[in-house]
Amino acid sequence: MQTLFSKSSDILYFNSANLSLCPNPILNAIDTYRRQFEINPTQSLKDSWRNLWGAQEKLAHFLGATPSDLILRTNVTDVLNAFILGVPLNPDEEILVGELEYGAIANICRFRSERDKLPLRFLKIPQSPPALSKLTSTQLGESITSQLTSKTRILVLSHVIAGLGLKMPIEDVAEVTRKMGIYFIVDGAYAPGALEVNFSTLQNIDFYGCSLYKWLLGPKGTAFGWVHPQVQEKLLPLQAGWTTFESQGDFNLFGAGSRFQQKFQLSGCRDFSPFFAINETIELWQSMEPSAIRKHILKLNQLFQSEIERQLHWRPLLPSDSSLVGPMTVFRLPDKIQAQASNLSKYFLEKIKAQLHFTQLNSGWYGVFSPHIYNSEDEVQELVMRLKSLSL
Questions:
Q1: Secondary structure (3-state) at 148
Q2: Which domains does the chain have, with CATH numbers?
Q3: What would the pLDDT profile of 317-328 be if each residue is shown by its tens digit?
């Protein structure tokens, strides 16, 4: 499997949750689509709407979704902008966002709050090692829903918390938000691919966004949003163009007649080659065994967790309830490294040639380990050895 990727001979890459390596067949497909487009750009643009819809259909079937319920965008921040800024709210209705949400997404909530003078509140999430070590899925779900009020109209929460590696009980939360009439917007950036996600089973969620270039190994600059059919008419587009009010000619080749699809389609002139390569991304996943990939990710995480405890005496930040364990391992950095703060990525690259992600919690700076199918057990052992050299 590792032969599908172009890897550095000396850098240990373990930041798949943020940006995965893209397989060579998909990179080659992007290049092919781009060159084919340039043979006759005018006709190629006219054909783009049909081809784009075909890629969206294939992606939807892979995710257990209806094609007309998806929208395509360039990244998950773009998707969450469409959701958070596009949902109609009254002046006294509150936005509630998790306190550990990705900074860009929290800023969208803050922007909407300040622009429309809406109340904004931050949802408390357990994050200390003692609290997490005793946490159960039921307790976490109850903690989240207990913070909802009659004024809460939007809840923004990650499927997997990037800074904790914590898998959230979104189905349980969604049952409550549906009953309370709260829009539940899920940031799924760190879930599909590493976790099984099937939208036919997530019918109480209103909006879900995900980038394809993280765990799903897709082209950089591609993402999708899923919108529940019952809220599609309420979502207001943030941009206007050729298809806002009616679709004519080649634009009608996209969306199978859905007005929602045509209002939200990528209708401008742009480089569509990464989106066309969604076809090859899904074909690659279908040629592999997705459950085997997820097992491999879990196996490497468990190996890393046991080895950093055994060799370095570092404790991973893990909940006691296995249903809350996500596809990443989060661990506190030694005190001597804490001073590096925001320079950590450069520090680790220069010192031990390892690419990880880093996050700040109440108790200090933490490293985030996220492996994928292009990583091996030998690489995990090598990473532990290099980390050990930092603490000597």
A1: coil
A2: 2-16+289-390 (3.90.1150.10), 28-286 (3.40.640.10)
A3: 999 899 999 999
